[in-house]
Predict the structure.
Amino acid sequence: MRTVRPKKALGQHFLRDMDIAQRIAGTVDVRADLPILEIGPGTGVLTQFLSQKNRELKVVEIDNESVVYLHENFPALNVIEGDFLQLDLNTLFDGREFVLTGNYPYNISSQIFFKMLDYKELIPCCTGMLQREVAQRICSGPGNKDYGILSVFIQLWYDTEYLFTVNENVFDPPPKVKSGVIRLQRNSRRSLECSEALFRKIVKSTFGMRRKMLRNSLRQVYEKDSPLPADCPYLDKRPEQLSVEDFIKLTLMVEGKA
Ligand code: SAH
């Protein structure tokens, strides 16, 4: 039988443990009403369990060798050959919402989650495996050392759960780091009171000077005439002490709306 030679440049680490594959596939069951898009099926380790769920399923795979393998071994599977980052998600399921999942290519995991944010109204649920460090960053809250830009950007729109850790030795070839499985579900926020562009700018610039109090990090962004009121409660705090709600309030203050 044909096999696929793992290619480092495509972040290919094939999962060999079927129990773990089944558990990961189970993470999409919270939204059993929706179709599924799997990123990077490779040789279909996760796909075989997803396809047993009697739900509409599409997979997107960039590697031609894997695509040929999938056609041979899963003839009924709907395979899109191409780059997820280039894929138009609006027309994918005729504009319907879907669940995003996969054992993601770790080299582009942040980009995958930024794209998810761009399409958040179509993706009420996103689950899957990625490098543990990034998984922890996505799911951490204020006060935690992993809490940062990615946490705040994603938690603005999604509730996050860190589900479980997966060891290196269940992959071929083993990755250098441990992996984490997560589940994100859209929270109840439908719109943002402040400018999202300004919100992102403030989050990025304050976490860029993580050890500095906001009084100092904001001064570097807004130079002398900081638009913050003198009684702003955040001036003596570090960014890791601010919740998503605090960052929204801070942005409103900078906009002069609070
Ligand atoms: N799901 C499989 C493979 C995981 S490895 C398993 O668990 O064994 C990551 C997979 O993502 C590889 O198959 C790789 O070819 C694919 N991939 C890498 N970059 C991609 C991209 N931009 N778009 C779609 N698939 C991609």
User: Anything to note?
Assistant: The chain has a mean pLDDT of 95. The pocket of S-adenosyl-L-homocysteine is lined by residues 10-15, 39-42, 45-46, 60-63, 66, 83-85, 103, 105, 108 (CB under 6 Å). The longest helix spans residues 196-208. The radius of gyration is 20 Å.
